[in-house]
Design goal:
mainly alpha; Growth Hormone, Chain: A; 0% strand
Amino acid sequence: MDIIACFMEAVMASSQQQSSLKAMFFIGTAWFGMSAFFAFNTASVPMFFNARIEQKWIVGLILGTMGGLGIIMSPILGMASDRIRHRLGRRRPLMILGLPFIVAVLVAMQYMPSVALMALVWPLAYFFHLVIERPWGALMPDIFPPDKRATANGVCQVMGGAGNLLYFVVGGYVWARNEEITFYLVAAVYAAGILAVVFGIKEKPTHLDPPRTQKRMKVLEYIAGLREHREVLRYAFACFFWSTGLNGILPWLTSFGTQGMGMSVELSFMILALSVGVVILLSLPVGMLADRVGHKRVARAGLVIFVVVNVLVVFVESVPLLFILMGIVAVGFCIIMVVPYALLMNLIPEDRMAELIGVASISVYLSILVGPTLAGFLIDAFGSYRPIFVFAAVCHGLGFLFLQGVTEKKATPILAG
């Protein structure tokens, strides 16, 4: 009987592991599609507006509208997702709602009759992306226990890295020859990724769950109530600084390559492709390492890499040396993409997961608003892209200092919902 019991336990464990890997794949497929959109937004959209708008700070402001929308909408969408009662669960209904609208914006964007209208319409793509991304971000903690989340996020980042790499290699080639078709390709890849989650992940139905009763609170009362989650707020403060550093560089990196280093458009895209290749190779090992030795310890190492390499890039004149440094900084980028999110999830109670992830994400979206705009001012003021790397180094250093104040909670296994 003991042998049979052991055998059955082994079979059940194997079945759960296969189910877990399948869920990781489908969630990662959605991140593949969204990452292709992010790569498009990072590499091509700045070029699209740069060719039409002379002032770089205005371009930075357009790109930063995602941050402004995220500050307002992220916690609202998180609370809405946590409270959805539907046969499809709490997360997928909003994803289904937002998908046709973002596809429509991507396809219609290039046909706008004026630059002003383009600048007004493009933020709608960010808005509908947030409608999709916020509930998607809560699927991972819904499905995976705390001691598996960095590993699961590592798988997602491998898939996301593949989406980035696809765009930086293929998209860069296509964009240089036909901008019009690029919008269609990005829309198709984005839609395919989201549909994989919609049809591939089976959430627990919530339509029969009793509605959550909660006393209505004024905004100031709600903010005051967040003080009981001090570690989440400390994390958000640190996250703001390192995200501002990232978002101060990423939208301008291809322009730095073409205008600051004299590269072709295709070669400037390869800077990003190299970095993403490193991320693909290391995301899963980094996630597994962080689950073993501690998320905070590994995250700090990533920030140190960022500070050192950003300072060195200021003095680089050689294209081969720039590629070497970009390969090194990609290790830090990989760490920041994989590890801090797992750290955050372990700080949040399960019943407020999407809501408080949304609250913490305000810092990321604020950085999207602040980073590109301030970097654009620096470029205009100095007539060079190099000062933005000093700006990023300072931001990452501040992120390291404020991360020191976050007390990491030890992950303990729980049953997946």
